[in-house]
Design a protein that fits this description.
Number of strands: 14
CATH class of the largest domain: Alpha Beta
Largest sheet: 8 strands, mixed
Structural class: alpha/beta
Helix content: 40-55%
Radius of gyration: 23 Å
Strand order of the largest sheet: 5-14-13-6-7-11-8-12
Number of helices: 13
Strand content: 15-25%
Distance between the termini: 65 Å
CATH topology of the largest domain: Rossmann fold
CATH architecture of the largest domain: 3-Layer(aba) Sandwich
Length: 362
């Protein structure tokens, strides 16, 4: 059957033989479609439905390989609200090659092993298929193996450095007056604005006097974000982070946005002790994770200038662990809070692979 991308009433559609799939349904252009063809198309749909995460992940990686700097802008314009989901698709497809994927296991099974070494991935996937493990059973088996591997490891290891839950649920576990710098990227959108107020309250308690809380923000709701952060902290400065993977179209203003505010608030008093540095930065494009996260080099820029070695860096919206990985690489202690268990798993494995320069001095 011939396959083609077509326009159906000016809407992109995928045509396979007599069948055209549109955003609102299926159009059959031939009344004489044989039963065998109809049946084969249905089976193909069933198979593709279970593979859509793989297909989208491979598509994103192929876009980067072929089009470099051009493709992130297209992704952001079309799917900017889905970046966290797309990130997972892309990461898993990047880390587990087609030849290692098992069709009898779900994509979610593969997500559980994505941050293991390739040999470990193959081993656990084979065991999951042989023993017909559910995703939860596979996760428990991996956790048990990691606990065994980590037996005798120092208590401050990365796996123990992320509190699972929201600020409201686990924030009270962060010791009062213990944090030297907060660097975080909360969710954007109107329904997430209250989180900046929760962050402000947490920061006022856990920061050391004179320590900064650096917060990424979009521009659309910036006045309300500023209001929330100022509930418990004092405004200090606004840094700028240039986008480096393509500008993002902001339809409200019809502008191509090329930078993002990084708001700096302080737990009084503000007494700058650091050397002067430029307040505009860009971290370059991340190659191993999604293109919309804050680059690790960008996080390292702020951490290196605004904290001292072995200081405690807190990220209350840890996500995939960008801030925590940068902190560990710079010899800082790190602590994260993250509500999404999948992100916790990814961040934990990611940061565990980072070399801690302080270990050489111990």
């Amino acid at each position: 059957m011939e396959t083609a991308l077509v326009q159906q009433n000016n809407i992109p559609a995928l045509s396979i033989g007599a069948f055209t799939a549109t955003p609102v349904g299926l159009i059959v252009s031939d009344e004489d479609v044989p039963f065998e063809v109809w049946e084969a198309y249905g089976k193909a749909l069933h198979r593709v439905e279970g593979a859509i995460q793989w297909v989208r992940g491979d598509w994103l990686n192929e876009g980067e390989r072929r089009y470099g700097e051009k493709y992130p802008q297209a992704i952001q314009e079309e799917w900017h609200a889905e970046y966290e989901t797309l990130r997972k698709y892309r990461e898993v497809a990047q880390r587990i090659k087609i030849g290692s994927r098992l069709p009898n296991l779900s994509w979610a099974h593969h997500l559980e092993v994505a941050w293991l070494e390739p040999e470990e991935q193959d081993c656990f996937l084979a065991l999951a298929e042989e023993n017909e493990w559910t995703r939860a059973q596979l996760r428990n088996e991996i956790r048990g193996w990691k606990r065994h591997e980590k037996a005798g490891a120092p208590s401050g290891d990365l796996a123990d450095g992320i509190l699972v839950g929201s600020i409201a649920e686990v924030g009270d576990q962060v010791p009062t007056g213990s944090v030297d710098l907060i660097l975080t990227d909360p969710p954007y959108g109107e329904d997430a604005i209250h989180l900046y107020g929760e962050l402000s309250q947490l920061a006022a308690r856990v920061l050391k006097p004179g320590a900064l809380c650096l917060v990424y923000s979009g521009q659309v709701f910036l006045p309300r974000v500023i209001e929330q952060l100022g509930m418990h902290l004092d405004y200090a400065w606004a840094f700028a982070a240039r986008h480096s993977g393509g500008n993002r179209r902001i339809y409200k203003m019809n502008v191509n946005n090329g930078w993002k505010p990084v708001l700096a608030y302080v737990k009084p008093p503000l007494e700058p002790w650091w050397d002067s540095f430029i307040d505009i930065t860009t971290g370059g494009r991340e190659k191993d994770l999604h293109d919309w996260q804050q680059p690790e080099a960008e996080a390292a820029y702020f951490i290196e200038h605004l904290s001292l070695p072995e200081g405690l860096i807190l990220d209350p919206f840890a996500g995939s662990g960008t801030t925590l990985a940068a902190a560990k690489a710079l010899g800082r202690r790190h602590l994260g809070i993250e509500v999404d268990s999948d992100s916790v798993s990814i961040a934990s494995d990611r940061i565990r692979q980072v070399h801690d320069p302080t270990e050489a001095r111990q």
